[in-house]
Design a protein that fits this description.
This protein has about 200 residues and is mostly helical. It is built from ten helices and no strands. Helix 1 crosses helix 2 and helix 4 crosses helix 6. The N terminus is likely disordered. GO terms for molecular function: DNA-binding transcription factor activity; transcription cis-regulatory region binding. Pfam families: TetR_N. This is TetR/AcrR family transcriptional regulator.
Length: about 200
């Protein structure tokens, strides 16, 4: 994105900054606990500008959910393209996509925003968007990744486990709790150092 000569951010850069900040704020505080003022402060932008750009907290949250889903699917599609180019066995794709999902822990807002969206399932607008997003991920796993029902279910289950572990901040217990370490290793495998680094 291009910045103006005087250092001001473009409208696209401000929008991206707001979405990144909102992903962190909603991920940490949940939909009900987050405010557009908190998002604005995190983005270094005025609260009226956030509302002017997105219209409401709900619309901002929906934009964050859509961006998180888009980032997730883009990472998965890139992984599929790389994996298929390498002529790896079909079983290898499960591991490759799992690694990409763990890699997204660097962008904690992705995991936590999706999880917060799923928690809002009873909300008419957010719940509908979250359900459709989840089904889109399911369709991706079945149609584009070529997973059978059992493999797709296992993949989503492991992904939800990692998202929940991040949501409850389990990585902070890694050094002091053998059970926490064991569970984190089970969820992250050799990518655990990346998750611990992202959580610190």
């Amino acid at each position: 994105m291009v910045q103006h000569d005087d250092g001001r951010r473009t409208a696209d850069e401000r929008r991206e900054s707001i979405l990144r900040a909102a992903a962190q704020v909603f991920g940490r505080r949940g939909y009900a606990g987050a405010t557009t003022d908190q998002v604005a402060r995190a983005a270094g932008i005025s609260q009226p500008y956030v509302v002017r750009l997105f219209g409401s907290k709900e619309a901002l949250f929906l934009a964050v959910l859509d961006q998180a889903k888009t980032e997730l699917l883009a990472a998965f599609r890139a992984a599929i393209a790389e994996d298929r180019a390498s002529d790896s066995p079909a079983e290898h794709l499960f591991v490759v996509l799992g690694d990409r999902y763990v890699d997204l822990a660097r962008e904690r807002g992705v995991h936590l925003s999706l999880l917060q969206g799923f928690v809002q399932g009873a909300e008419p607008v957010i719940g509908a968007a979250a359900r459709e997003g989840y089904l889109e991920i399911w369709r991706f796993l079945r149609e584009e990744a070529g997973f059978d029902v059992d493999r797709a279910r296992d993949f989503l289950g492991r992904g939800m486990l990692l998202s929940v572990l991040l949501a409850v901040d389990l990585p902070v217990l890694d050094a002091t709790s053998p059970e926490a370490h064991e569970l984190l290793v089970a969820a992250c495998g050799p990518k655990l150092p990346l998750v611990l680094d992202a959580a610190s």
